[in-house]
């Protein structure tokens, strides 16, 4: 019996889930801190202009992460299902296919970002003032995208094999390198955004080396061979199908940041609060993205921890155990989201103050942060729904759900609220844009709840059939 099997079939589901989730949550927290470090250090060194420049680059960073989780999450689901069916060779081929795909996708992104850096940044909203700060950050981050693919994507293969502590070690290496080198390069040596990007790249490279070392350890349940790195195109299709929902979330988030930056710049001409600058409004958007992502970590961590177990139990045809893991994922995740969410709602200035923006821009940034965080607790419905259908191998339902979730969010946030809300309320276009996060979040949660309600009856039918 391998480690994943012994954990999945253990006695207490909540105990197993929480125990497995703790290093996952800790690792994700480190990843979020790792992402926020660039904003914080550059903000302290260059103030609002530096934070605004990195905010302009945030969509491209999300696209890199989207490529990483496409092959990382998708490959992990295939590995878990294969191990549930006791097919370790298939699991190894899935891992090798994911690594090969990550290498090709990373190279393509790096070449595109290098050749078209300035047009892409201008399209994203960079002014001539921001461009010199944003350009080096984007280009360095783009050429380190293979490192990111391993640290954010391929490392999940190690977790799926039953070793979350090893993934936590990988993420710890990355964040410690980034913080130490970032402080040295940005604060001490005053190298600006280029220094922040170099620190991030070196940290990700160290994480990639650690990931490879763990994948080749003898105690891994599947053994990688050189021939496994030759892509299996049927398996690649399945990997992409199961990984698409995770990837689509990042791609849609990237689009949302593009759209937000564009609309903030457009609305700022006539709707800026007193004392707030256009750069300050862009910085507020970047702070909102960074802090909200941080708030969701406990829920995402628990859902991520549950994936190998749901996948294994689905592959082993154990519907009751699958249902138990799904139910406890929601309960534990919802409870875990509450403390950090309450802290932001009660004291947003503590979080905004870390980013070093100008004093005149702080009040608006605090308002934006409190508004966008309102729907964080109920986001667990959306998180569980997407994760469950992926992990159980239901690619078609998972992809349909993610399209409906993200489509409704975009329509509500970028059309219904910013252009219709000012007609009926006292909120201006800029305020309505940020309030759209609430409406879009509620729409996505309602759609997911409908899918989960239907699935509950389906799985209960399977339980009754298996126990008849």
Automatic annotation (TrEMBL):
Belongs to the multi antimicrobial extrusion (MATE) (TC 2.A.66.1) family. It is a multi-pass membrane protein. Keywords: Antiport, Cell membrane, Ion transport, Membrane, Transmembrane, Transmembrane helix, Transport. This is Probable multidrug resistance protein NorM. It comes from Raoultibacter timonensis. Multidrug efflux pump. The lineage of its organism: Bacteria, Bacillati, Actinomycetota, Coriobacteriia, Eggerthellales. The chain crosses the membrane at residues 12-30, 37-56, 62-82, 94-117, 137-158, 167-188, 194-216, 254-273, 293-313, 325-344, 364-385, 397-421, 433-453. It comes from the Bacteria. Its main location: membrane. It is found in: Cell membrane.
């Amino acid at each position: 019996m391998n480690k994943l099997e012994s954990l999945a079939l253990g006695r207490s589901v909540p105990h197993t889930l929480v125990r497995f989730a703790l290093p996952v949550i800790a690792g994700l927290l480190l990843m979020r801190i790792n992402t926020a470090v660039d904003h914080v250090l550059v903000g302290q060194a260059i103030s609002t202009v530096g934070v605004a420049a990195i905010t302009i680059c945030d969509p491209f960073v999300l696209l890199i992460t989207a490529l990483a989780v496409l092959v990382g999450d998708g490959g992990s689901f295939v590995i878990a299902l294969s191990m549930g069916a006791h097919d370790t060779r298939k699991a190894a081929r899935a891992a090798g296919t994911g690594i090969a795909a990550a290498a090709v996708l990373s190279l393509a992104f790096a070449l595109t970002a290098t050749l078209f850096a300035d047009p892409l940044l201008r399209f994203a909203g960079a002014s001539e003032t921001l461009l010199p700060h944003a350009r080096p950050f984007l280009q360095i981050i783009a050429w380190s995208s293979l490192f990111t693919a391993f640290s954010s994507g391929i490392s999940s293969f190690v977790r799926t094999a039953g070793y979350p502590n090893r993934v936590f070690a990988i993420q710890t290496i990355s964040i410690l390198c980034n913080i130490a080198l970032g402080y040295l390069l940005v604060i001490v040596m005053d190298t600006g955004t280029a220094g922040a990007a170099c620190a991030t790249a070196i940290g990700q490279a160290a994480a990639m080396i650690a990931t490879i070392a763990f994948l080749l350890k003898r105690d891994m349940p599947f053994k990688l061979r050189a021939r496994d790195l030759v892509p299996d195109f049927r398996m690649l299709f399945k990997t992409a199908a199961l990984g698409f929902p995770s990837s689509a979330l990042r791609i849609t988030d990237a689009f949302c940041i593009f759209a937000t930056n564009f609309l903030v710049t457009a609305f700022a001409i006539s709707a800026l609060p007193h004392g707030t600058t256009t750069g300050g409004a862009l910085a507020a958007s970047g702070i909102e993205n960074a802090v909200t992502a941080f708030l969701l970590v406990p829920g995402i961590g628990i859902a991520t921890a549950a994936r190998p177990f749901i996948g294994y139990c689905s592959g082993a045809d154990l519907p009751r155990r699958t249902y138990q893991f799904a139910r406890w994922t929601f309960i534990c995740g919802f409870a875990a989201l509450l403390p950090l969410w309450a802290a932001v709602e009660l004291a947003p200035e503590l979080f905004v103050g870390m980013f070093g923006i100008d004093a005149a821009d702080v009040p608006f940034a605090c308002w934006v942060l409190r508004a966008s965080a309102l729907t964080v607790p109920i986001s667990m419905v959306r998180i569980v729904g997407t994760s469950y259908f992926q992990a159980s191998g239901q690619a078609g339902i998972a992809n349909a759900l993610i399209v409906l979730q993200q489509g409704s969010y975009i329509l509500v946030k970028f059309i219904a609220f910013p252009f219709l809300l000012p007609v009926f309320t006292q909120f201006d276009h800029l305020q309505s844009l940020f309030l759209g996060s609430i409406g879009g979040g509620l729409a996505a949660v309602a759609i997911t709840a409908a899918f989960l309600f239907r699935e509950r009856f389906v799985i209960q039918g399977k339980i009754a059939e298996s126990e008849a």
